[in-house]
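Fold these two proteins, one after the other.
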Amino acid sequence: MKKTFSELVETFAVLRGPNGCPWDRKQTHESLIKNLREETEELVAAIEKKDPENMKEELGDVLLQVLLHSQIASEEKLFTIDDVIEGLYDKLHRRHPHVFGAHAKATSPEEALAVWKEMKKKEKEK
């Protein structure tokens, strides 16, 4: 049976809940920095080795970090995973006006990158 994203999010709430895992409950954004770096480096190594099975596992470990940080932030009333998703969705749409807007179409990867950089610069100027 396929698991859903919402089931995975709920798993982190349980892990950090009163009857959850002592290790998970103890973690903070700061205590997880080392883990986030390690998991990202392991993903890069799997990509460089062109090892899709290991990439799949390491992507899961990076996602674990995203979800754990989001759960901690939710508990601290800072933001939720839904806020992270909405922010990413909005950013992707803003920075791809050549796909989602009226901006001239990018005909090459270089043009698309230039549009991304232009949109990012405009965001920073605000």
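Now the second one:
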Amino acid sequence: MSKISNTISMLNLLSTGRKYSIQELATILEVSPRMVRTYKEELEKSGIYIDTIMGPYGGYVLNQSIRIPKRKFKKEDYLLLDQMIMETKDSKTKEKLTLLKDKIRGIYIGSKDEKKELDLTNETQQKYNTLMRAIKERKKVKILYYSFNSGENERIIEPADMFLFKDGWYCAAFCELRKDIRHFELKRIRKFDLLEETF
């Protein structure tokens, strides 16, 4: 990732209010601790000051409220994948790229619709608010989810992002049952409970 992209990613992590050690940030961003310090310097040049906690349990913490613009996909992103899919000969790679293209296209369409006023039912609004809180506080959520294949089943998820696809809201989250990232449609979440356990 580029320097500016990594800097924004680090700011996104710190905006949750959680303290991160330099090594934790370096591991997540896949850079050296020295680069993490460079990102901090760049942010402070822009007027975003990050507190440093000294000692063996120290790290960086952001003690100010920052409104971070969401990074969105553009139409050109999934059109570029279309071109790569056409040029790829390996069928497995082609299948993976097609799935990725569909996800990016969905997020792109959703990001355009986000400019409109949210039209959510009270029930969906509660789910949305709970999941957004879980993302910010890095808390797990227990849900009862309806699947077309297996009916209702209980899941523990670690929410990462919310996005609008066609006419519905989805939550991208790590599913402990499937041990993978899954997209959960809010209208198919029958019950939900914000847990105290963090991730």
